[in-house]
């Protein structure tokens, strides 16, 4: 980013030749969009340039805080470039600790009865606390502790913190939950990377529900890490 910004600045004042790539970059930034050369090296995002820049600073703050202050109590899932690796690492830590084969371990999803990650004061005994997800197509009812229909004119809502608890040979519940896919961005599409993981799909989450899964599938309900809007990220009302 620093190199390309310096090159664009020099090209605009005539110190270097304005190449097609630099011209496209300057035009894209003028329209407040993220340049392709940055997007090709970065993480998937639908945000305009200003919101994308703020998001990048938040990611750096999240990682710097981890480096300077040690392992955090909870994890801002959108802050990871490759969240699948973090989740796999959590399963691996559990498998090593208990001497279990990792292919028998899966996450049990528990939605915390908290409105904000700031209310979390200590680490879980097993697994991890994650936060920062948004829900599209529905909302979370904190009183009933289950999915509910969206409020009028409300496209996305903040989802409460989640405890991902590794369990060996777990029996997946057949009712009372909506097994929802979790995505990075709203496009719901991705490609397989060289690791065999999707560039967009993250993991399934079992969300408490009083309706059958078909009810929420028809509405396209899914948690996502990033929207194209700037939304509050702290507390559910």
Structure description:
The chain has 237 residues and is α+β, with helices and mostly antiparallel strands. The chain is built from 6 helices and 11 strands. The strands form 4 sheets. The protein has a 4-stranded mixed beta sheet with strand order 1-3-8-2. A hairpin with a 4-residue loop joins β5 and β6. α1 crosses α2 (20-30). The relative contact order is 0.15.
* E-strand count: 11
The span between the termini is 38 Å
The number of helical segments is 6
- Structural class by SSE content: alpha+beta
Give the fraction of residues assigned to helices: 25-40%
What summary fits the major beta sheet?
4 strands, mixed
Strand content: 15-25%
Estimated radius of gyration: 20 Å
| Strand order in the largest sheet | 1-3-8-2
- Please write the string of helix (H) and strand (E) elements: HHHHEHEEEEEEEEEHE
Unreliable stretches (pLDDT < 50, length at least 5) are none
The shape, in one word, is globular
Averaged pLDDT: 88
List key phrases describing it.
single chain, 237 residues, alpha+beta, 4-stranded mixed sheet, 3-stranded antiparallel sheet, 6 helices, 11 strands, 29% helix, 21% strand
């Amino acid at each position: 980013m620093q190199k390309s910004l310096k090159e664009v600045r020099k090209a605009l004042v005539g110190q270097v030749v304005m190449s097609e790539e630099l011209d496209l970059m300057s035009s894209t930034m003028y329209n407040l969009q993220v340049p392709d050369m940055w997007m090709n090296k970065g993480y998937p995002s639908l945000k305009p340039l200003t919101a994308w820049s703020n998001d990048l600073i938040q990611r750096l703050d999240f990682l710097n805080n981890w480096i300077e202050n040690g392992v955090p109590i909870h994890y801002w899932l959108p802050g990871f470039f490759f969240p699948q690796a973090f989740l796999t690492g959590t399963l691996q830590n559990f498998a090593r600790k208990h001497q279990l084969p990792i292919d028998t371990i899966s996450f049990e999803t528990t939605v915390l009865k908290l409105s904000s990650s700031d209310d979390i004061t200590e680490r879980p005994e097993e697994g991890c606390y994650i936060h920062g997800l948004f829900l599209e197509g529905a909302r979370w009812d904190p009183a009933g502790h289950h999915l509910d229909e969206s409020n009028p004119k409300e496209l996305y809502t903040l989802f409460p913190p989640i405890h991902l608890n590794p369990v060996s040979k777990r029996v997946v519940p057949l009712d009372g939950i909506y097994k929802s896919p979790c995505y990075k961005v709203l496009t719901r599409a991705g490609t397989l990377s060289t690791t065999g993981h999707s560039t967009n799909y993250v993991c399934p989450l079992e969300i408490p529900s009083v309706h059958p899964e078909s009810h929420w599938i028809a509405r396209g309900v899914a948690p996502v890490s990033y929207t194209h809007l700037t939304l509050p990220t702290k507390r559910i009302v």
